[in-house]
Design a protein that fits this description.
Layout: H1 11-22, E1 30-35, H2 42-50, E2 72-75, E3 82-86, H3 100-103, E4 111-117, H4 122-133, E5 138-143, H5 145-156, H6 160-172
Parallel strand pairs: 1-3, 1-4, 4-5
Antiparallel strand pairs: 2-3
Length: 173
Amino acid sequence: QALVAVTWKAPEQIREGARAAIGIDAVNHYNFAFCGASGTGKSSLNNAILGLKDTDEGAAKVDETEATMEIRSYTHPKLKHVRFWDIPGAGTVNHRAKSYYLDKQLFTHDCLLIIGSGRFTEFDVRLAETAVRYGTPVAFVRSKADQDIDNRADREDKSPSEVKDSVRKDIVA
């Protein structure tokens, strides 16, 4: 029988190895991961923060179907030490929700921005809980609120400005 040598790496060694493989510089940059379910507006939010239109050169690809297939970083034009990482959305055939955190090596980032549209889901909460177990800070970001404002305005036959505050209060609650 052959003996198999087993090498165990401490979690920090695993994190640093994964960062090197992805290209994350955690010494000179603070790395935010835009993550969450597919179709929540992660790439659009990334573009907006960078001051780009979705059609601009260098913008993250945006589409009504699954557009982000690979992890990609973007540097803010004014905050040179900040990197935003556009992560493919979870819950598709290509990017499974069940193993999303580890598959996308989200433990390599300095902070996860979990992007949700509509409602935050059980997946979003589980993703946050997993991140916390790995010691990764998390913030929830609500996108597409303008669509909710327009929908409520239509339902209540009011202007968007008349329902904006009530939609905001409901989202916060």
